[in-house]
Amino acid sequence: MTPQREEALRLLRLARRDQTALHALLGVPGVAAAVAFFHAQQAAEKALKAAMCLHGLEYRRTHDLEELAGQLADAGRPPSVVEADLRLLTPYAVEYRYDDEPPELLTPAQALAIVAALLSWCDELTRMHP
Length: 130
What we know:
By secondary structure, the chain is mainly alpha-helical. 64% of the residues lie in helices and 0% in strands.
C-alpha cells in the first residue's frame, strides 16, 4: 500500500468519526447546531483531503472547503457536491467556533446529506484506486 493510500484511508476513518459525532450531537438538548456543524465541516474537509491523497494531489493546511474542492476540480477530479454547499460548512471550522450565537447557514438534513455524499464519493474512489 502506498503512503498516499494509507493517509487517505486514515483521513476517511477520521471523517467517519466526525460523521458519527455529527449524528450524535444533532438534536441533543442544549447543544447548538453549530457544534454539530463543526463536525460536518471536519468530516467534509477530511474527505476532500483523502480524495486529494488518492489522486496524488498535495494540499496546504486549510479549512477552506471551496479551496480544496477547487484544487480537485482543477485536476479533473471534482467532488460529488457543489461548492456552494461546501461554502455553507466552511465557517463552522473557525469563524463560528467561538461565537455565542452563530447563524445556522444550513439545516441539519443538509449537513448530513453533504457529509454522506462526500464519504460515499470517497468510498467509490478507494475502490477505483486500490
